[in-house]
Design goal:
The chain is mainly alpha-helical. It has a domain of 128 residues. It is built from 6 helices and no strands. The radius of gyration is 17 Å and the shape is globular.
């Protein structure tokens, strides 16, 4: 990731922690939590790997192509699931964004020497697709943050029953919010 190493490491930590929590959610008693947790864990860990500073890990071109293949498969799987459940549309956009960033890095001159942020778009401005994805994820961050605030207040006031870590919907929403913030950060550096 292009930019200060400290910011990249914070993004790595945030995304890895989110991915780990999503793995815990796969053990939830609530079916909706289990259904989406695997894809969200893949996104969290994938974002963590992509955000590792280039000075530490500079993947070769084939690694970016492998990322693109994994997230391309996630796009197909999520697209199939989105036919029946509208909730999967956000996951579809997220998987598409990850595949898009992977392809951009594989196609970038010197992709073997860096991470997100070296795609060579600085002279031409922001590509339309990158801008559209930035707008989508910025809107998603604002929307999910607004949804999270009332849940956090109700939870702090004792408005919900005591649930296990894997069953807390407000924590799951906070994880989605943090992944949205991470996606904005990664798209900004593309």
């Amino acid at each position: 990731m292009h930019g200060p190493a400290q910011a990249a490491w914070l993004l790595v930590a945030l995304c890895a922690a989110t991915g780990a929590y999503c793995l815990l959610r796969m053990r939830s008693r609530i079916e909706e939590q289990r259904r989406t947790a695997g894809g969200e864990a893949l996104m969290g860990f994938g974002m963590a790997v992509m955000a590792v500073p280039a000075a530490v890990l500079a993947p070769p071109r084939w690694a970016w192509l492998a990322y693109a293949a994994v997230f391309g498969a996630a796009v197909l799987h999520t697209g199939w699931a989105a036919r029946a459940d509208r909730h999967h549309l956000h996951h579809l956009v997220g998987a598409f964004a990850m595949a898009y960033m992977s392809v951009a890095m594989a196609a970038a001159p010197g992709a073997h020497a860096g991470h997100v942020g070296h795609a060579g778009h600085a002279d031409a401005g922001v590509p339309v697709l990158t801008g559209a994805l930035l707008l989508y994820f910025a809107g998603y961050v604002l929307w999910s943050g607004a949804r999270l605030a009332p849940r956090a207040v109700a939870s702090a006031a004792g408005g919900t029953a005591v649930l296990g870590w894997a069953d807390r919907s407000e924590v799951a929403l906070a994880c989605r919010l943090s992944m949205g913030i991470g996606m904005v950060a990664m798209l900004l550096t593309l």
